[in-house]
Amino acid sequence: MSVKTILISQPKPSNENSPYSSLVRKHKVKIDFRKFIHVEGLTAKEVRAQRVDFSKFHNVILTSRNSVDHFFRITEEMRFKVPDRTKYFCQSEAVAYYLQKYVVYRKRKIYVGNNNFKDLEATFVKFNKEKFIAPTSGSLNPEIIKVLDSFEISWDRAQLYKTVVSDLSDLRDVYYDILVFFSPLGIESLFKNFPDFEQNKTVIAVYGNTTEEAAKSKGLRVDIKAPNEVSPSMAMAIDKYIKG
């Protein structure tokens, strides 16, 4: 089929030279970006109801920029001054770099994994007599839980934010040749906004196995999937599909 329009269920990249810009130039397609889900912070009252006492934790486990933002937001709202001695365990360099928004990097103890806390096992174990806290949304990747539990450290979670479905009602009468999803929540958002959605000729592109499973559970036909050996990125998978 001829592809002219694509909707990416994510925010528009800040980089003008993103792989999607290359698709626009190469195939003369129109690509729109729209968040199908968004994050909302819990109130201080909701966090207090979880009986979270930040003063008991001197080690913070950070899995994303959202976890960074909402940790410092809620501690400020609760008028808790985060001690300078607090240690931060970041899942990736991107998270650690983002942490500089709130702390003076060179004056804090910050440990960085290579997208996996397993890389920091020796450091976690070094402080296994201390308590750790992980600011999270309503869920946490089971693999992260498994890794942290394997360290036999004293750690706990505090839900500080939640992921909710965005209002997409303005798209009801808008048609796209390809819809691109990156998480099961994106699929959930599609059907919460449009319970009567029928795929027909719409091409569904998914990233990852869990997103594919969510799409198929809703009766969708998955036409494009990434990553794979030929197309490690979604942009490459779309490019390959369009070229046929």
What does this structure look like?
- The chain has helices spanning 19-27, 44-48, 65-77, 93-99, 121-126, 142-150, 184-193, 209-217, 234-243, and strands spanning 5-8, 30-33, 37-41, 59-62, 87-90, 109-112, 131-136, 154-159, 161-165, 178-181, 203-207, 222-226.
- The chain is of the alpha/beta class and 244 residues long.
- The chain folds into two domains: 5-36 and 167-243, Rossmann fold (3-Layer(aba) Sandwich), CATH 3.40.50; 40-162, Rossmann fold (3-Layer(aba) Sandwich).
- The chain is elongated and about 60 Å long.
What is the CATH domain class of the largest domain? Alpha Beta
| SSE class | alpha/beta
Radius of gyration: 21 Å
Do you know the CATH topology of the largest domain? Rossmann fold
Helix count from the secondary structure assignment: 9
Strand content: 15-25%
Number of E strands? 12
Q: pLDDT average, as an integer?
A: 95
